[in-house]
Design a protein that fits this description.
Blueprint (H helix, E strand, L loop, with lengths): L1 H45 L1 E6 L3 E6 L3 H21 L5 H12 L4 H12 L2 H7 L3 E12 L5 E12 L3 E15 L10 E18 L1
Helix pairs in contact: 2-3
Length: 207
Amino acid sequence: MEFKSLKNIEGSFKQIRFFGIVFICLCAVITGYVVWNAFSFAEAQRQKIYVLDSGKSLMLALSQDMAQNRPVEAREHVKRFHELFFTLSPDKSAIESNIKRALFLVDKSAFGYYKDLTEKGYYNRIISGNINQTIQVDSVLCNFDTYPYNVATYARQIIIRESNITQRSLITRCRLINSVRSDNNPHGFTMEGFEVVENRDLKITDR
């Protein structure tokens, strides 16, 4: 009888140890789940920003990782430069204002191109001939696999004269580097090594 009692006590200890291990494992799983869920909830709350609208009501705004939006900002930066640099009207002050704003987005390579056109009398002919020039950017291709980012821009220039309208193919290349954001450079990029690869007439239409 004494041996049988010892066996029963040993079996009971094994059962208690087994249930104890199971209980500890369940507690660990539940604790891990609760901690993970708490961190996920805290991270989601950190991405929410509440803005006070004129002291009256709260509006919810969501934060976003800046890196996710950089490709869009890069294309917009390059597009904005081309619109400012290549949109010309027969007004010297308007031309100089656009060029000045465009040069904030690029290094001295674009200034060299501008000086070359100036020395050739390009802007004087725009003014004296009462010519308007606009640009339509078809696509901006950015390679974000390597830094600095290589960029190719494909666009069409539309040159409007009194006698005709000329459509011209424009292809440019440059590299994009990260820079400080400012009022003059809101996207935080600088174009370097700017060059015009192609600038040729496609179509001339009489007016």
